[in-house]
Hints:
Blueprint: H1 11-25, E1 34-37, H2 41-49, E2 52-59, E3 62-67
Antiparallel strand pairs: 1-3, 2-3
Amino acid sequence: MIDKEHQNRGYGREALRLGIRSLADRFGAKEIYTAYESSSSVARDLYRSFGFRETGEAAGNDVEMRPALDGARKS
């Protein structure tokens, strides 16, 4: 989460990119997933830009996403 005063500067995109890389490189993660609040089109679009797609699973207002079969792009 990026404070409202610091949004739209690419910090969230860079944090997600580094997080994905760290999970794979440092921890050897073979699978990753995330969730976003269904009302947040900004979060949904950010995750989609990295290759994540909705799985059809949801818990409350949270929608689960996983990388598409070709994996998450490191944009």
